[in-house]
Each structure stands twice: as structure tokens, then as C-alpha cells.
Write a structure and sequence with these properties.
Bound molecules: pyridoxal-5'-phosphate
CATH superfamily of the largest domain: Type I PLP-dependent aspartate aminotransferase-like (Major domain)
Number of helices: 15
Number of strands: 17
Structural class: alpha/beta
Strand order of the largest sheet: 4-10-9-8-7-5-6
Number of domains: 2
CATH topology of the largest domain: Aspartate Aminotransferase, domain 2
Shape: globular
Length: 407
């Protein structure tokens, strides 16, 4: 059985007070906190094997290269694929930019179209807009219903012979909706359209098997999954990695370089890893995955969902509270507004009471626009949160509302 207090005790940052109040961290959708084992691993690596990978022949270089490639294997196993399908990047944003650029160079022509959804994070919108503009393409947008579920019945008619890719999030970082991604991929594939999944939130809330999903691409960041910042993963099917041109050029991604005859590329996945990667971070991420594997993922998720549901129920008891995203299949993310108060004010006051919540557009301005809002508050729950965190957060929000309404 998942033991929340044992799990929580691994995260030293949660023990601290802010403004003399016990910290209540409800911003895990932005970044997760790190367990001791991850924090210690990074320091240990710098103390012991730090040395640039794939270059030196000395002892340390071999140690760090082996550890890095071992981390690649751990990531591959974690998401059910082979190591040559894993590209280490600096984060999900970098992963999506690689797809948009390199897949775009391979496949996109003037007059083609890309399908996105209205619930995408900016990281899964802007790179596609950039390539669409460069190539003279159309962007088609799949809408969502008021509860935050996608209008999937509209997807078949949006696809035509010029549709080159569907880029879609697995789980919305604002609405919390868990999209039926396997079914969506099946539908797109039945019409010959490849699918790039933004798995930033998906990887946090579900065990993901990219090969079972049959995703063409799956991108995520280590920092949301208990790992370090500055490390991301791009999973891609071998056929795409082999046929796509590289995005960044530089050291380590080449086979040969000649000033007279040009350059040739390294084998995949190294073709997409130009320059010195964050190898210490990638190795540390491998440690984070070992840490997660010690726990039962679905039990952890169930626990975090219970907290989020309790929070949502009690939030709605506050007059004028509205929750955005009420899909039946939803992750532990609760975005909300309270009539007559500004989300920034709520977040600022609750912060002074020790409660760290996010407020703003959550890098998903089209979602805000859909609801005719400029901002929302968001409380996102992780398995290290507690029932006490919910009590404190609700009390803090009630107090903020009272203060704001008194003015
Ligand atoms: C759904 C989604 N996609 C993409 C991103 C971008 O991730 P990163 O900033 O780590 O590149 C995030 C981060 O909030 C996200 O939640």
C-alpha cells in the first residue's frame, strides 16, 4: 500500500516554513519537488564522475558516458521502448521544437495543415505556428466542451489529405483532462496522420507505454517527474528519427565533418543531441525513475486524486467559486476562479499564508480566452501532499476571499 507520509518524508523542501507558516506546495504541475535521492545524486555525480560524455577515453569519461547511456536505457524501459528511440533534450519545449522543425523539414509543404487542440500549452502551439508560418501552412484547432473534454467527434472531418500531423496534449495542464490518447492516435493513424503527444503532464499521472499507444512522438520534461531541471525526453519512432534531418548542429551529432565536403550525421539518437547535453541531469533523472519505480504508480495517483477531489468539493462551497475542467477522467489539477476576486490577489494572499499556488494564464492563453478570462488560480496535487494541505489551502482561500470582499 502506498504510504503517503513515507513518500513525503523523502522531500526535504516540504519541511520548511515560508513567512513563518508551514509550506503547502500546490504547484507540482509547474514543477515537482525533488526527493533526497535525486538531490544527493546530482551532487555525488559532480564529486565523482563528472567528465564530458562520448569524447574522452579516460576513466571518468568512460564512467560518465556509461552512466548517461544507462540513463537512456532506464528512460526507454520506463516508457516501454528501445534506447535508440530516446533523445535527451533540455526539456519538453526543446523536444517539441525538434519535432516541429525536423519533422516539418521532412514532411511539410505549402498548403498542408497541422491539427492542434484548444487546450494546448504554449509549448505545443508556438513551435507549430513558427513552422506553419515558414512553410505557408494552416493550423486547424480542435475545440473542447465546457467540461474540458475534447470534441473528438469533430476530429475525423478536420483531417484531409493535407493534414501532416496532429499535435496534442495527453493531459491538460489547466483543465486536468486526461485525453483518450490511444483512441485519438488510432483515429489519426486510420487516416494516415502521425501524432505528436505532449506528455508533460501525461507522464506524471499515468504509466505510459509509448509503443502500446503507438505514438509517433512523445515529449516530456524530467523536472515534472521528480527529476532535475534542464533535462527533457523526446521519444520518436525509429523511422522518424532516421528520416528527419537534425535540428541543432555541432559536436557529437556528426559522423564526419569536412570543410570541403560538408558533414554527415551520427546514428540516431545522437544525431539530435548536438553539443554537451545536460548529462549530469540525465543521469540524475535515471535515479528519479528508480525512485518512482519503488512505488505503485496507480496507488499514488489515486491518493493525489482523492486530495484534489476533496479540495474541489470544498472549494465549490465558497460562494462564486468556479472550477474549469470537470471531465470524468481528470488528473489532480484544479483550476478555478472566485467571483469578485482576482486570481493574482488570491494567490498572493494565500502565499503569505504558506500556500504555494499558481495564478495566471498557465502558458495556455487560448484556454483563458475560451472562458473569457485573463487568469485562473491553479492548485495541483502530488502524492507528497496531505489532507492537512487541503485544509490549510481551503482555509487560506476562504480568508483571502473574505479580505478581498471586505474592500
Ligand atoms: C502540458 C505541458 N506542455 C509543455 C510544457 C512545457 O514544459 P517545459 O517548460 O518543461 O519545457 C508544460 C509545462 O508546464 C506543460 O504542462
Amino acid at each position: 500500500m502506498f504510504n503517503p507520509s513515507n513518500f513525503r518524508s523523502e522531500f526535504p523542501i516540504l519541511e520548511q516554513t515560508v513567512y513563518s507558516k508551514q509550506l503547502v506546495y500546490l504547484d507540482s504541475a509547474a514543477t515537482s519537488q525533488k526527493p533526497n535521492i535525486v538531490i544527493d545524486k546530482e551532487a555525488e555525480l559532480y564529486r565523482t564522475i563528472n567528465s564530458n560524455i562520448h569524447r574522452g577515453i579516460h576513466f571518468l569519461a568512460n564512467e560518465s558516458t556509461n552512466a548517461y547511456e544507462n540513463a537512456r536505457t532506464k528512460v526507454a524501459e520506463f516508457i516501454g521502448t528501445q534506447r535508440q528511440n530516446i533523445v535527451f533534450t533540455s526539456g519538453a519545449t526543446a523536444s517539441i521544437n525538434i519535432i516541429a522543425h525536423s519533422f516539418g523539414e521532412l514532411m511539410f509543404n505549402k498548403g498542408d495543415n497541422i491539427i492542434l487542440t484548444r487546450m494546448e500549452h504554449h509549448a505545443n502551439i508556438v513551435p507549430w505556428q513558427m513552422v506553419a508560418k515558414r512553410k505557408g501552412m494552416e493550423i486547424r484547432v480542435l475545440d473542447f466542451n465546457e467540461d474540458g473534454t475534447l470534441q473528438l467527434e469533430k476530429l475525423p472531418e478536420m483531417i484531409d489529405q493535407h493534414t501532416k500531423i496532429l499535435a496534442i496534449t495527453h493531459i491538460s495542464n489547466v483543465l486536468g483532462t486526461i485525453n483518450p490518447i490511444k483512441q485519438i492516435i488510432e483515429l489519426a493513424h486510420s487516416k494516415g496522420v502521425p501524432v505528436a503527444v505532449d506528455g508533460c503532464q501525461g507522464i506524471v499521472h499515468q504509466m505510459v507505454n509509448v509503443e502500446e499507444l503507438d505514438a509517433d512522438f512523445y515529449s516530456f520534461s524530467a523536472h515534472k517527474l521528480y527529476g532535475p531541471t534542464g533535462v527533457g525526453v523526446l521519444y520518436a519512432k525509429t523511422k522518424w528519427l532516421e528520416s528527419m534531418p537534425p535540428f541543432l548542429g555541432g559536436g557529437d551529432m556528426i559522423k564526419n565533418v569536412s570543410l570541403e565536403n560538408g558533414s554527415t550525421w551520427a546514428e540516431v539518437p545522437l544525431k539530435f543531441e548536438a553539443g554537451t547535453t545536460n548529462f549530469i541531469g540525465a543521469i540524475t533523472f535515471g535515479e528519479a525513475l528508480d525512485f518512482i519505480k519503488r512505488y505503485n504508480f496507480s496507488e499514488m495517483e489515486h491518493y493525489a486524486n482523492t486530495l484534489a477531489q476533496d479540495f474541489a468539493t470544498r472549494l465549490l462551497e465558497i460562494e462564486g467559486a468556479k472550477i474549469y475542467g470537470t471531465a470524468p477522467n481528470k488528473a489532480s489539477i484544479v483550476s478555478f476562479t472566485i467571483d469578485g476576486t482576482h486570481p493574482m490577489d488570491i494567490a498572493q494572499i494565500t502565499d503569505k499564508l504558506g500556500v504555494a499556488m499558481r495564478s495566471g494564464t498557465h502558458c495556455a492563453e487560448p484556454v483563458m480566452t475560451h472562458f473569457e478570462l485573463k487568469a485562473m488560480c491553479r492548485a495541483s496535487f502530488a502524492p507528497y501532499n496531505t489532507a492537512q494541505d487541503v485544509d490549510t489551502a481551503i482555509a487560506a482561500i476562504q480568508r483571502a476571499v473574505r479580505m478581498l470582499r471586505a474592500h
